[in-house]
């Protein structure tokens, strides 16, 4: 079976900041990507995983949670595992780097 990975789209959603003085952490999808799970490729699984990451003031992920499943465990696990290892741009509170949550939607697509 010859499947080619079309691409992954990741976006950071800024809705839900605690106050106007809080800026959530941000994610650079160009510098951090997840590998398509082999079983998911074979089964032609596609979908979007919605996750939240608690990002430290230094940009490291301290915690993660699944907000909405893609419908496939392998895709969900691969996205959380890979993105948890990424470096984020820290968020801020009142202009100073701070621990904040970032919401990320990660889309798995095949062509």
Automatic annotation (TrEMBL):
PROSITE patterns recorded for this chain? TONB_CTD (PS52015)
A single GO cellular-component term from the record reads:
plasma membrane
Which protein, by its recorded name, is this? Energy transducer TonB
Where in or outside the cell is it found? Cell inner membrane
Major location, coarse class? membrane
The UniProt entry, under Pfam families, shows:
TonB_C
- How does this protein sit in the membrane? Single-pass membrane protein
Q: Which domain of life is it from?
A: Bacteria
| Keyword tags | Cell inner membrane, Cell membrane, Membrane, Protein transport, Signal, Transmembrane, Transmembrane helix, Transport
- Which intervals hold domain TonB C-terminal? 21-111
User: What organism does the UniProt record list as the source?
Assistant: Pseudoduganella umbonata
Q: Which family does it belong to?
A: Belongs to the TonB family.
One biological-process term from Gene Ontology? protein transport
Annotated signal sequence is 1-20
